[in-house]
Write a structure and sequence with these properties.
Elements lengths: L14 E5 L4 H12 L3 E6 L9 E4 L5 H15 L4 E4 L14 H26 L6 E8 L10 H20 L4 E8 L7 H5 L2 H8 L10 H12 L10 E4 L18
């Protein structure tokens, strides 16, 4: 269940595909849409035990598999109203140690796969009277230096550009937006941010005083997919708790008030 109560984005009956929607941020997104009455379909390479949503095994880097997935959803549910391109990620590898094959795979997953899913979803949505909405989950890594994840950061920057282009090409039937995500506390947070003490220290650097919860990303995504954002397309919504203050502020001897 999501944290906000009393909010109704009128997503009842919408059919929503969330890629990578079974764990972490994706699970939070799926939960918010389900809580709002949508029929949630998830996909990933492997299922997660206990996930309450309809699941399809799919490697989104495989364009034919993606087309088959979209076709199956439309055949089963009669429509596809929303796609959330959430699947992605990258391990930490310094650029000097990353092989060309490794970097290619990261770009395929985080950029080209997003284009593949979006293209096949758009083909279905253009046939629907109500059109559809695509929301791409991007990252602050695409807007600042990302040591150790150079291909990932570059790919996420590309997704933001892709979002603006597709919003023009596919209008007026399909709206395309992105959510620019900051640091999120998930079941795998220790892999990125360390132990509880480390997470607490990192949180103190965030203006809002904490890392995001997956449901925070879910609510932003659901808003962009809803009729409440019916005139919003080609936009990037930053969900990062106020961002990361410049490092010099913690070290300067200047009297900055």
């Amino acid at each position: 269940m999501s944290d906000a109560t009393g909010i109704n984005l009128r997503l009842d009956g919408r059919v929503v595909l969330v890629t990578g929607g079974v764990r972490g941020v994706g699970a939070g997104i799926s939960a918010v849409f389900a809580d709002q009455g949508a029929t949630v379909v998830t996909c990933a390479r492997r299922p997660v035990e206990g996930s309450p949503h309809e699941f399809h095994a799919c490697d989104i880097r495989d364009d034919e598999a993606v087309k088959a997935l979209v076709d199956e959803i439309v055949e089963k549910h009669g429509r596809l109203d929303v796609v959330v391109n959430n699947a992605g990620g990258s391990p930490y590898v310094p650029a000097s140690d990353a092989s060309a094959r490794f970097s290619t795979k990261i770009v395929e997953l985080n950029l080209l796969a997003v284009l593949s899913v979006s293209t096949h979803a758009n083909a279905a949505m253009q046939q629907q009277e109500s059109g559809g909405s695509i929301v791409n989950i991007t990252s602050v890594s695409g807007r600042r230096p990302t040591p150790g994840t150079v291909a990932y950061g570059a790919a996420k920057a590309g997704v933001e550009n892709m979002t603006t282009t597709l919003a023009v090409e596919w209008a007026p039937k399909v709206r395309v937006n992105s959510v620019v995500v900051g640091m999120v506390e998930t079941e795998q947070s220790e892999l990125f941010y360390g132990d509880a003490d480390s997470i607490a220290a990192i949180s103190r650097n965030v203006p809002l005083g904490r890392l995001a919860k997956p449901s925070d990303i879910g609510w932003a995504t659901a808003f962009l997919a809803s009729e409440a954002a019916s005139y919003v397309s080609g936009a990037s919504l930053e969900v990062h708790g106020g961002g990361e203050p410049p490092h010099y502020l913690s070290t300067t001897t200047a009297d900055i008030k």
